[in-house]
Design the sequence.
């Protein structure tokens, strides 16, 4: 690096406990890799943290968790934004880019049962049990296998949600949460079962952390390169290309499952692998489910993204378009009803 290079960088994220833990994970990684540089942290509240009353589904999956942070990034107040990649919109604002994608935790969803209850799996729950989740993806897919369960929105950060679950007079028998978040918070011991495909396909990029930087910040870009886990990057970018093509955000019922095999590396760099990606789109009531798989040898990020995009085209042709158009209509209708009600 040139002698004029910066020697200190500010990492920023939301102020939730999970976001802070994730930011500290990244800071530790940067400090270990670049011991001569210094890294500090800054935590902010975002729109998604403030608006706890409106259903996520109606908020429409816009840049709820990222916008305020991106303003600070662009104004040079901070240098690196640490996100759960799943919360990062598939199209970034002009002037921002994803600098790094770190090694993914297990991407599955997990079941957490209310303290003191004897159940372990979704099969164990009596009909009529209330399962808390604010994700339409989880509800739509699980309604298919568990028509007897009642799904109810639950908002707030992970600690708040768990407190709502355990409240003696609370409505919830169980919650469904991303395993990665629970594990990072040190609450993996609350998990009674993992829910994986084909029962529940996880969210695009679930379990992976990302660093967002200014697009022209060469120094930050170099640091980020060292932290990127290429296998995760190829998988997640394929998943994001799929979601982008489906024109969805985190609030559409899109699930995925992705694997890499026959991995070739040269000088430590990933050069070729077989990428298999399964994607699904499910109607909100669970009555229609479109699912497809593509598998292909890819040699670059662009190849991985192409495969994700091709899968989207296939899903759209096979019925996903009807489901997503219905959802868009329903959301517009409900949003305008909510406005008139105020
Ligand atoms: N906006 C919610 C959110 N964003 C990222 C995670 C979990 C961690 C991850 O997927 O990396 C969660 C919590 C959840 O879905 O249970």
Sequence:
């Amino acid at each position: 690096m040139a002698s004029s290079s910066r020697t200190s960088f500010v990492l920023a994220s939301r102020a939730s406990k999970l976001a802070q833990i994730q930011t500290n994970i990244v800071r530790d990684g940067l400090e270990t890799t670049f011991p001569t540089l210094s890294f500090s942290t800054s935590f902010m509240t975002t729109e998604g943290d403030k608006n706890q009353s409106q259903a996520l589904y109606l908020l429409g999956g816009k840049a709820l968790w990222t916008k305020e942070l991106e303003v600070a990034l662009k104004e040079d107040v901070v240098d690196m934004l640490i996100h759960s990649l799943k919360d990062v919109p598939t199209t970034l604002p002009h002037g921002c880019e994803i600098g790094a994608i770190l090694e993914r935790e297990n991407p599955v969803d997990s079941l957490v049962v209310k303290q003191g209850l004897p159940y372990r799996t979704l099969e164990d729950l009596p009909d009529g049990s209330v399962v808390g989740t604010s994700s339409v993806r989880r509800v739509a897919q699980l309604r298919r296998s568990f028509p007897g369960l009642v799904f109810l929105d639950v908002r707030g950060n992970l600690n708040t949600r768990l407190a709502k679950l355990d409240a003696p007079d609370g409505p919830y028998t169980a919650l469904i949460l991303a395993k990665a978040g629970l594990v990072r918070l040190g609450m993996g011991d609350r998990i009674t079962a993992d829910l994986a495909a084909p029962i529940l396909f996880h969210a695009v990029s679930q379990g992976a952390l990302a660093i967002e930087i200014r697009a022209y910040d060469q120094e930050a870009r170099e640091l980020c390169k060292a932290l990127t886990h290429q296998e995760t990057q190829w998988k997640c970018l394929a998943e994001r290309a799929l979601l982008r093509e489906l024109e969805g955000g985190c609030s559409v019922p899109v699930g995925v499952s992705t694997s890499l095999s026959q991995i070739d590396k040269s000088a430590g760099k990933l050069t070729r692998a077989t990428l298999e990606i399964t994607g699904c789109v499910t109607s909100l009531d669970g009555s229609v489910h479109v699912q497809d798989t593509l598998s292909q040898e890819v040699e670059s990020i662009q190849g991985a993204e192409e495969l994700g995009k091709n899968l989207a085209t296939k899903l759209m042709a096979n019925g996903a378009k009807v489901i997503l158009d219905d959802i868009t209509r329903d959301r517009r209708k409900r949003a305008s009803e909510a406005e008139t009600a105020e």
